Hints:
Blueprint: E1 7-11, H1 18-34, E2 43-47, H2 53-62, E3 68-71, H3 88-93, E4 98-101, H4 104-109, H5 114-126, E5 130-135, H6 139-145, H7 149-159, E6 169-172, H8 186-204, H9 206-211, E7 213-217, H10 225-229, E8 236-239, H11 246-253
Helix pairs in contact: 1-2, 1-11, 5-7, 7-8
This protein binds phosphoenolpyruvate (PEP).
Amino acid sequence: MVDRRPLIAGNWKMNFDHLRSIAFVQKLAWTLKDAKHSAASVEVAVFPPFTDIRSVQTVIESDRLEFAFGAQDLSPFDSGAHTGDISGEFLAKLGCRFVIVGHSERRQNHHEDDSVVSAKTLAALKHGLIPIVCVGETNEDLEKFGSSAVPVSQLRAVLDVLPKDSEIVVAYEPVWAIGSGQAATPLQAQEVCAALRAAIAETHGADLAAATRVLYGGSVKSTNVASFLREPDVDGALVGGASIDVDEFAKIVQFPKHVIA
Ligand code: PEP
């Protein structure tokens, strides 16, 4: 059986300027050091706004902190006349390990459809970045099709173009759970994460399915994170609101120490 290192990823969204991002990363490092957090047992990644990435990179590299970092989006193109967009090549040069693609806020607010998300996934891989591919159903989808159908079809659109043996992370984020305070139940998350893993197995084989980390996201907090991570197909969490509160995020990262009632 493949050992999947849990990943706790903090999506800061459009919060913190570069000065606050430095203070946040330093405080997170001290807090986790005091708590004797082991980076070998849980991988931690932060996703600042583009304008903070260079500052975050500098702190992480100069202080040799055991965090990864990434961007919240990238362009499907490498360069050229794409005003306001950021190339995967630039992100890779800044040392980003990951990039989020297809977050529901991009799908909704920027009309990104499955073909754009697929193109962005390929652009990330081309530049050596690990895409965190977000999928998830709206409330309406949930009522019409149940919980798995839409996330699985969104993932299939990516799998259709995904080269064999690509390293990706999948994040199941029900849209109704994002920022609402109403998380999915661990069982719901498990069912959909298992269906997503099965879709990977179907198109790319059992080995890639077993190696791919599938995260849950949507109103994750320190009080519920461990109940998700206890599920066999949930390999981590993509955290939004709670990721910009440093004490709360540090508690989430330490989920293996939580006692579940
Ligand atoms: C997100 O934006 O990816 C997210 C999961 O947000 P929240 O944790 O605030 O629900």
